[in-house]
Amino acid sequence: MKIEILTLFPDMFTPLHQSIIGRAENAGVVSIHEEDIRLHTKDKHFKCDDVPYGGGAGMVMTPQPIVDCVRAVDPDNKARRIYMSPRGRKLNADIARELAGEDFILLLCGHYEGVDQRALDICGFEELSIGDYVLTGGELAAMVTVDALLRFVPGVLGSSASAIDESFSDGLLEYSQYTRPAIFEGIEVPEVLLSGHHSNIAKWRKEKSEEITAARRPDLKK
Ligand code: ADE
Questions:
Q1: Ligand 1: which of 9, 12, 84 to mutate, judged by most atoms within 8 Å of the beta carbon?
Q2: Which of 26, 38, 63, 173 has a CA positioned 20 to 30 A from the CA of residue 196?
Q3: Whose alpha carbon is nearest atom 5 of ligand 1?
Q4: Could you tell me the residue ranges of all domains in the chain?
Q5: How far lies 189's CA from each of 30, 182, 193, 200, in Å?
Q6: β-strands 60-61, 49-50: how paired?
Q7: Is the whole model's pTM more than 0.90, yes or no?
Q8: 165-222 belongs to which homologous superfamily?
Q9: What CATH architecture applies to the domain 2-150?
Q10: In angstroms, what is the C-alpha Rg of the chain?
Q11: How confident is the model over 88-110, as pLDDT tens digits?
């Protein structure tokens, strides 16, 4: 899978390339590249934003650098083109799984008050939000999206079971996890988990998941 991230702040993406995702990149499972939109501006002062027509606070990203940047990284219009925006469809596990099936994803990060609508229309962007709050830019939202979708790409997680047996995969939050030592500060690990009895362990986990979901997220109940 190939991911192109279009941004005015490529340095913000250092944390994305660590740990599990960094290993997936090194293994050739995914290639993630940040393209600096500013490299594509025709403005002699490298400007990529301007005041909004109609007035109002803040600046709007101009269409020319964005459109040229998109055409440079995806000349054959092969990518699923996504603009990170609070106006978009809200990301969830089903959307992350769906995006994991794409070969090529292009994520556009806005900054300031957003981007000129014509850039979105010309390039055919869909919009995607990570939640009902406004961030200062789309960069963190793009990182969240990439992280969430890559967990569904085969070969990214060590064990293929990991993305199945987790919160939201069956409409429930995940059960509580324990590791060694068996007693910590006087608190014991639930006995059934030490029993080696697989069906009892599965039953305990299901019950825990249901209990936690009912207490914290009753809205998830089918
Ligand atoms: N950019 C600013 N806020 C955002 C949000 N909530 N989701 C996606 N992109 C954004």
A1: 84
A2: 173
A3: 86
A4: 2-150, 165-222
A5: 38, 5, 7, 15
A6: antiparallel
A7: yes
A8: tRNA(m1g37)methyltransferase, domain 2 (1.10.1270.20)
A9: 3-Layer(aba) Sandwich (3.40)
A10: 22
A11: 999 999 999 999 999 999 999 99
